[in-house]
Write a structure and sequence with these properties.
The protein is built from nine helices and eight strands. It is of the alpha/beta class. The chain has an eight-stranded mixed β-sheet, with helices on both faces. Residues 33-260 form the Alpha/beta hydrolase fold-3 domain.
Length: 287
């Protein structure tokens, strides 16, 4: 597996980069997964997908392009989405010349908050080259009451007062920061029910950045995965979506934490990625 880094854009003086995971024999590649990481849109890094899954995807003919985006609250959702549209444009302009690929077929793939971004871009910026959408424990609706109310799960932890949390906000945009350095900002947001205020400019934008039932029915083929015991994003988010999306495959694992695929000692993660590869193959052959 080869790893290469490319710069796709700049936001002010901040570099926006991507990592390209591919097979040396690119002629065998079937499509590219454009990947958005999780972290509540407040923290994380583009290269957070465990290497075992990256290698599995590449071995099975799928390139992976993991993409930076500027984090909230230094920027808000409109800016994040604008940058990701630039990343998709970069891929479509450079897949042949820079990446050496024979086709521009791609899937949007996100985990948690990255799944939310994948939903939004698939619904609001559809392109013929996109063949499907993959959301692992993601959500499509900021109107979900769980996101605006104090979380009973997160309130088990020591309280982080909003003013303490806000001291972690940088004066300029950033693209990555570790969970250890900034989880407290997300924790406080969920404890006090004000997490969404970091993402949107006004309360009415919560509805603006939520998919309607009609938009769900118009999505390309979708692969969803979620744990029944998710303590962060309610599993109902994927269960409801799986009933409303017309062309959907849904894998639910039992009694594991939110990011169930993060613990590579558990077999469930690997099984879901194998199911994902089977779905990718089937989706491409049915086009």
């Amino acid at each position: 597996m080869i790893k290469q880094t490319f710069l796709y854009s700049k936001l002010e003086d901040l570099d926006l980069s991507m990592t390209f995971y591919s097979n040396p024999n690119k002629s065998s590649s079937k499509a590219t997964l454009l990947y958005f990481h999780g972290g509540g849109l407040l923290y994380g890094t583009r290269d957070d997908l465990p290497e075992i899954y990256c290698a599995l995807l590449v071995e099975n003919g799928y390139n992976l392009l993991t993409i930076d985006y500027p984090l909230a609250p230094e920027v808000k959702l409109p800016t994040i989405l604008t940058c990701l549209k630039e990343a998709i444009d970069w891929f479509l302009k450079n897949y042949q010349t820079t990446l050496g690929l024979k086709n521009s077929d791609y899937f949007l793939f996100g985990r948690s908050a990255g799944g939310f971004l994948s939903y939004l871009l698939s619904a609001r910026s559809p392109l013929p080259e996109q063949k499907g959408l993959i959301s692992f424990y993601g959500y499509y609706d900021l109107m979900n009451p769980a996101f605006s109310q104090p979380s009973s799960y997160y309130n088990q932890f020591p309280k982080v007062a909003p003013l303490t949390a806000q001291a972690m906000i940088y004066p300029k945009p950033i693209t990555e920061i570790s969970i250890n350095e900034r989880f407290s900002l997300y924790l406080s947001g969920r404890q006090f029910g004000n997490w969404l205020s970091y993402l949107v400019n006004t309360p009415s934008e919560k509805e603006t950045f939520s998919l309607t039932e009609a938009e769900l029915t118009e999505l390309p083929p979708v692969f969803l995965a979620h744990s029944s015991a998710d303590q962060d994003v309610p599993v109902e988010s994927s269960r409801i979506a799986s009933n409303k999306i017309l062309n959907v495959t849904y894998e639910e694992v039992e009694n594991l934490p939110h990011d169930f695929d993060g613990d590579i000692t558990k077999s469930e993660g690997l099984q879901v990625y194998q199911a994902l590869i089977a779905w990718l193959d089937k989706t491409l052959t049915s086009i």
